[in-house]
Design a protein that fits this description.
By secondary structure, this protein is of the alpha+beta class. Helices cover 24% and strands 34% of the residues. It contains eleven helices and 21 strands. A seven-stranded mixed sheet has the order 1-2-3-4-5-16-6, with helices on both faces. A seven-stranded mixed sheet has the order 8-9-10-13-14-7-15, with helices on both faces. A five-stranded mixed sheet has the order 19-18-17-20-21. It is globular. The two termini are 32 Å apart.
């Protein structure tokens, strides 16, 4: 049947959410959600696929910026709320919606597209690659102590606008130094602090603690809630870390020390954390902190390959011509084009531009997206769709060039 993909109108929001929730097997409070999001959403970025006048597919983006190796922030489109009705699967709807958003994003000047994948096999065919890794950390608070003596002051703040402002100040200072971290929307902060998002379920209710350095300045925060559990009339509660960021080693250590020492808490659990968390090194018993559920986090697609490669810095120097197979969606199905980019990179910066020179290496755009932030090795990412080496050693050169000493990490889920 004919499918029309276009941005939705305001009066179509309820039907759009109905289609989305059907695809995600959920039944939220749609009228409340519409009321909450209407002041915050840009509906020109909210796509609907219409079949016989009904919304059969949903696809939405929002504007953000992402920090890349070297500390620059690049314009990005963040993809979310992707779904197709069970009655309309395998009809090319997702392909058409993805193509429409990617074309619009390029026109807006956004150079990367990012998302979290609910299912792994979907997005590689549109040029995305898994670029960061995340893990859940579980700390047995009763099985360890901490090295060193406490430093600075811990303070519980109210979770109102003033507490949110304190946390946002730390996060904004932190995100511009952390490769792969992104800007957070105001609506995200409202939900995180329990003043929004109630249409999707119970609002957040928890606590906010900040760390002040010796001069009284706030240099770290943790937002958390507690899952109650008692055994044999003894408290065995789990403290769940919802967000934790610090601007220095002392603040990082003191936040974890505080969380592990909260009365009635037996276990501290933190999801979507860095897989290379430094927590075990703070402990007198490093085995008390265990990572689990390690897997891919943020997926990245380079919308403008030359601009993206030129935006970051590199820890080594090399000149390469890359031929990138750029995969995308389109109105008539998946599309594929080849882009040749001459890259001159060094620790001082890089230049990149399209060229007609013969390539040193041909590779899939999803593999380049995966390796772009330094969190996935290019030599591994190319295995999914293959590569062609036109100059001996070109893959090894590109792999070493894109790698970074410190792996990227994104704490912001959307």
């Amino acid at each position: 049947m004919p499918i029309d993909v276009r941005p939705i109108h305001d009066d179509e929001l309820p039907a759009w959410f109905d289609a989305l929730s059907s695809g995600f097997l959920d039944r939220p409070d749609i009228p409340r959600i519409v009321e909450e999001v209407r002041p915050h959403w840009d509906l020109t970025r909210c796509w609907g696929a219409f079949a016989d006048g009904r919304i059969s597919g949903t696809f939405r983006s929002w504007a953000t910026e992402m920090t890349v190796p070297g500390g620059r922030q690049v314009r990005a489109t963040a993809i979310t709320a992707v779904g197709v009705l069970p009655t309309h699967r395998r009809q090319g709807i997702l392909t058409r919606m993805a193509g429409a958003e990617h074309r619009a994003a390029r026109e807006r000047g956004e150079i990367v597209s990012i998302l979290y994948a609910s299912e792994y096999p979907i997005y590689g065919r549109f040029g995305y690659g898994p670029a960061t890794t995340a893990a859940t950390w579980t700390l047995d608070a009763s099985a360890t102590g901490f090295h060193g003596a406490p430093r600075g002051t811990m303070e519980l703040l109210p979770t109102d606008e003033s507490g949110e402002a304190a946390a946002r100040g730390v996060f904004e200072a932190w995100r511009v130094r952390q490769p792969a971290e992104i800007w957070r929307r105001p609506i995200t902060w409202l939900s995180d602090f329990g003043r929004g998002g109630s249409g999707w379920g119970a609002p957040w209710k928890g606590f906010l603690v900040v760390r002040r350095d010796e001069g009284g300045a706030i240099d770290g925060y943790a937002r958390y809630h507690v899952e109650e559990k008692w055994e044999h009339r003894q408290p065995r509660n789990t403290l769940v870390v919802d967000d934790l960021h610090a601007l220095g080693d002392d603040a990082y250590a003191e936040l974890w020390r505080y969380l592990a020492a909260v009365d009635w808490v037996a276990t501290v659990k933190a999801e979507r954390r860095h897989p290379a968390e430094r927590l075990p090194w703070l402990l007198t018993n490093a085995r008390a902190a265990v990572p689990s559920e390690v897997g891919e986090g943020l997926w990245v697609k380079l919308l403008d390959v030359p601009a993206a490669l030129a935006a970051r810095t590199y820890e080594r120097a090399a000149d390469l011509v890359l031929e990138v197979v750029a995969r995308d969606g389109g109105p008539d199905g998946p599309t594929e084009r080849r882009v040749r980019v001459a890259l001159a990179a060094s620790p001082d910066g890089a230049t990149a531009h399209e060229t007609d020179r013969e390539p040193d290496l041909s590779l899939d755009g999803g593999a380049l997206g995966a390796a772009y932030l330094g969190g996935s090795r290019l030599r591994d990412a190319v295995l999914a769709r293959g590569w062609d080496e036109h100059r001996p050693g070109a893959l090894a050169t590109a792999d070493a060039l894109l790698a970074t000493l410190d792996p990227p990490w994104t704490s912001t889920f959307f």
